[in-house]
Amino acid sequence: MEKTKRTERITAVTRLLTDNPNQLFTLPYFCGLFSAAKSTMSEDIAIVEAALKKHGLGRVETLAGAAGGVRFRPMLSRKDAFRQVEDISRELCDPQRLLAGGYLYWSDILSSPDIARRMGYIIAGEYYDAGADFVLTMETKGIPFALMTAQALGVPLIIARRSSKVYEGSAVNINYVTGRGSIETMALARRAVKPGQKALIVDDFIRAGGTARGMMSLMEEFNVEVIGSAFMLAQENPSERHISGDTSLMLFSESGPDRLLVRPAPWLSQERDETL
After folding, report:
1. N or C: which terminal CB in the chain sees fewer CB atoms within 10 Å?
2. Architecture of domain 78-269
3. What is d(CA 100, CA 126) in angstroms, rounded to the nearest whole number?
């Protein structure tokens, strides 16, 4: 194979890494792909790493050892994450979004690929080292957000349904109590997950946490460990909460009969050991 120029290698390496978040690529793989020496590819990867870090576009990590390699992890600094979540919070505070019964219209936010991607990257950044084998969500509105989180983590997305589907084979069905006190059903195909795996629960919204508690109970039926739960929007100081330790990007509270106050979660404004 004809040797490629450095600019071409760097462009291709960047594309491969960013298109496959959290996936390990070995140095020999790149060497064979571009007919380049290990020292040359190491220099190229260092250039990509420095550029992405400088512009806050993500983190390139090199893992040593026989099972090591190079991987890209999409990640936003806390400062950038707070700013982006603050912009969305401000938009959700529009009084025209408040619907009858105290509901909030935000389907346009949830269905925006760009917003779902950015919010997914923020959540993924908090769980990279937790070792999740898959992301679990409940149909249907939280799917875009959960999918982008799974994509950033480099793991599959598993969707729990309100009823089992014949084309998914046999399923486990459980009953759970919703936040409003009603009894509903949740189902998951038996082939979807394996015992001993680890799940990260991701959904669009949490009030009392009944659905999230249901997903945790469902994972117990599969002997799967839940390593965390994350939501785009959560009610601030609910009268009761069926789960604890969850991570939410935004909090909402009633500031009047015709208005909801939405703000970024406080943890987004806290400093951390930034590596970007």
Report:
1. N
2. 3-Layer(aba) Sandwich (3.40)
3. 35
